Amino acid sequence: MKNNQNNLEDKLSKLPTHSMSKSKQDRMHQHIMNALNDVEVQQPEGRHPLMKRLQIGVASAAAIVLISILGLSFVMNHGEQIGEQTQTPNANERENLQEQDEKNSEITEEEQVSVEEKATEIYDALRNRDMDLLSSFVHSEKGLFLSLYDYIEQFSAVFEKDEVPALLEDNTEYFWGYGDANMELKYTPTGYMDRYLKPDTFLNSDNKMFDSETQRSDLNERIQAKFPKAKIVEFYKEPVYEDWKSVFLVFEPNNASNWELVAIISAEWTP
Amino acid sequence: MTNVRETISEWFYLYSNDVYNFLVYYTCTTDVEDLVQEVFIKAGRGLHSYKNQSSPKTWLFTIARNTAIDEARKKETKISKNSTTFDERFWEQQTSANPEHILLKNEEQKELYLSISRLKRKFREVMILRGIQGLSVRETAQILNCKETEVRTNYHRAIKALRQQISEEDLK
Q1: Could you report the per-residue pLDDT of A166-175, keeping only the tens digit for each?
Q2: Under a CB-based contact definition with an 8 Å cutoff, are residues A266 and A247 in contact?
Q3: What's the pLDDT score for residue B128?
Q4: Are strands A144-148 and A259-268 parallel, antiparallel or unpaired?
Q5: pLDDT of residue B21
């Protein structure tokens, strides 16, 4: 038995070794050096660069402020314009807010069914890249928050409801997080969708798995921390070994207590 | 402070052929130059995140593995629309998963290569890193981001599965 194993290991070690020619190596080396022209010197063992660029920092801060203002505007039920809502709520208002919160945190069976039906329609809208249809589900006050699960706290792009129909025409590259070796993940909204919400594979109806009360993992916890009053619907692709992929559709009630889409968050297995 | 280009240049001439050879087996194709190049560019851009707990070679192999998987994901849209798993597609799409494309000397090597390509991914990975690349258990665990015991177990099972496959082929 042991001899068999050794014999097999011996055969494995004798499989041919492949290498590049010296000229090919030199050409590739030149390309790599050219590509690294702008990163001449770096600090080793540096902290994880949360915000490399001021532009990103400003954009993220603006997004956070915007979300806060929108959130405040929503719960105070005034329907006022963004930026006008700056005062602190008084005791009565706080009480109203609490009542509103309690009301919001309860979801009836009908609402549950309604959210799940909407989620299915949104799934189809995403697959068909039907931004008009998608827009019709987006939260009127909060807009649509797009992000990657791993960077939900740090990076995202938020679009107003009326911006969503033209989302695929937006050529702005947004910053979504970091990939392998800290590579910056920058995509336009179309790029984001093409990378994380592929229509004919992940969003293929054959792959469609639906779970509104997933116990599969603790993934929901971070989303709930970000959207405490939300109802989350997850579509996921069943893993076989360790590869899995999910998209979370996050719903919150609007001023009229209708559940609307506030966020699309993509998550996938990272090797 | 580190001069990124100097470091990457040095690592490139030390390890690019190891990365190349690994990617040939990992992706089942010899068309991996673009991936090798991407690995070293990523390494240069992410050098500040490199921690000395692993050797440069294992760090580069980690990036190479992630890059290959990511590349396969990018191609995902071009792959069949049926409900096969990513795991299956990842290897199916390496359309040149053909022993003729890899310089295998004889029928026995071709059979061995095809048998490896049919293993489950977790077995195949450990087989390529440990069996073919000759990396240590510790290095393999660092690349696969798992415990050393898992590497040992999976390697043992992979050898067993491989032997079984080969003997089944021999019976045909």
Answers
A1: 999 999 999 9
A2: yes
A3: 93
A4: parallel
A5: 93
Is the Cβ–Cβ distance between A180 and A166 less than 8 Å? no
pLDDT, residue B89, reads 46
Domain ranges of chain A: 106-268
Q: Residue A236: in which H helix or E strand, if any?
A: strand A231-237
In 3D space, the residue among B125, B143, B141 whose CA is nearest the CA of residue B39 turns out to be: B143
Long-range residue pairs from B85-89, CB within 8 A, at least 24 positions apart, any chain:
B85/A238, B85/A239, B85/A240, B85/A241, B85/A243, B86/A237, B86/A240, B86/A243, B86/A245, B87/A240, B87/A241, B87/A243, B87/B120, B87/B121, B88/A240
With 60 as the cut, is the pLDDT of residue B53 above it?
Answer: yes
- Please name the residues in contact with B24: beta carbons below 8 A apart, sequence gap of 6 or more: A18, B30, B32, B102
Using CA atoms, how far apart are residues B159 and B163, in angstroms rounded to an integer? 6
CB contacts, 8 Å: B166 with chain A: 8
Strand, coil or helix: what is B151?
Answer: helix
Amino acid letter, A262 = V
> How much of chain A is helix, strand and coil, in % rounded to 5?
45, 20, 35
For chain B, domain boundaries: 1-103, 105-172
At the topology level, CATH places domain A106-268 in Nuclear Transport Factor 2; Chain: A, (3.10.450)
Q: Which CATH number fits domain B1-103: 1.25.40, 3.30.40, 1.10.1740, 3.40.1440?
A: 1.10.1740
Separation of alpha carbons A178 and A154, rounded Å? 11
The beta-carbon neighbor of A15 closest among B50, B85, B109 is B109
**Which of A21, A34, A127, A183 should one mutate to test binding to chain B, selecting the residue with the greatest count of B CBs within 10 A?**
A183
Q: Which residues of B touch A266 (CB under 8 A)?
A: none
Which comes out higher in pLDDT, residue A134 or A124?
A: A134
- pLDDT above 70 covers a percentage of chain A that reads 61
Mean model confidence pLDDT for chain B: 80
ipTM score of complex: 0.82
Are B33 and A15 a contacting pair at CB < 8 A? no
Flag if B44 and A206 touch (Cβ within 8 Å). no
Amino acid present at A213: E
Q: Which fold has domain B105-172?
A: Arc Repressor Mutant, subunit A (1.10.10)
d(CA A264, CA A146): 5
Query: Which comes out higher in pLDDT, residue B83 or B73?
Result: B73
Confidence (pLDDT) at B17 = 95
Least confident of A14-23, A41-50, A206-215: A41-50
Q: Which of B118, B120, B117, B90 is nearest to B25 (CA)?
A: B117
